[in-house]
Amino acid sequence: AQSVAQPEDQVNVAEGNPLTVKCTYSVSGNPYLFWYVQYPNRGLQFLLKYITGDNLVKGSYGFEAEFNKSQTSFHLKKPSALVSDSALYFCAVRDGGRSNDYKLSFGAGTTVTVRA
Amino acid sequence: DSGVTQTPKHLITATGQRVTLRCSPRSGDLSVYWYQQSLDQGLQFLIQYYNGEERAKGNILERFSAQQFPDLHSELNLSSLELGDSALYFCASSVEWGPTDTQYFGPGTRLTVL
């Protein structure tokens, strides 16, 4: 079975400081990893994904994520956070080892608050 | 704006009733996915269709059903509604049906069962 854990319910940072949102995963085959962001009363917006290749993935709005196979992690990072980055962030995984089931499994979400 | 549209935005109904949620995927996308987001269960995958055919089922109740039509829009039917069905229902779409495809989400339909 595939699963994702986001160990922090909330992350609070000051504007201009680095932002990190943690994610660990469990799959039986190759992991395909995604980050989404949800603003209040909005749908999920795709930020970035890791499929293969370079472990550092760059995405939208200055976000990047680092894939670490040995630690089964895929942490989301932003070097300098903005107040507008305050939102709910979801990590998701898809198990590439399963041939017919390409559903996304989501973590519980991490609420990010960036204070001015 | 992801290009995925969902109607209605809000739905308020009573227990025991039946409702239909509608989703139009992004232009060119063949796969449609339905998810339920609730406070206690988080984001749960319900069902996936690819080019009109059901491809994968998740935690979908027997009271729920879905279909994808020839024009690729999809409908999620919820019947015999219970209070616990109150949630945000998302539709997502992707170009193909594969593990690396990015799913793009619609704005959701908020269902309130009274």
Report on this structure.
The complex is a heterodimer of chains A (116) and B (114). With 116 residues, chain A is mostly beta strands. Chain A has no helices and twelve strands. In chain A, strand 8 and strand 9 form a beta hairpin. Chain B is mainly beta and 114 residues long. The interface between A and B is medium-sized, with 25 and 24 residues.
Contiguous helical run count of chain B: 0
Distance between the termini of chain B: 31 Å
Main pleated sheet of chain B: 7 strands, mixed
Please give the radius of gyration of chain B in angstroms.
13 Å
Beta percentage of chain A is over 45%
Overall average residue pLDDT of chain A: 92
Quaternary assembly: heterodimer
> How do the SSEs of chain B run, as a string of H and E?
EEEEEEEEEEE
Q: In one word, what is the shape of chain B? A: globular
Strand runs of chain A, count: 12
How would you state the average pLDDT of chain B, rounded?
94
Rg over alpha carbons of chain A: 14 Å
Class inferred from helices and paired strands of chain A: mainly beta
The number of helical runs of chain A is 0
Total number of strands of chain B: 11
The largest interface is: A-B, 25 and 24 residues
The profile of the biggest β sheet of chain A is: 6 strands, mixed
Helix and strand string of chain A, N-terminal first?
Answer: EEEEEEEEEEEE
Report the uncertain regions of chain B.
Answer: none
Strand content of chain B: over 45%
C-alpha termini separation of chain A: 41 Å
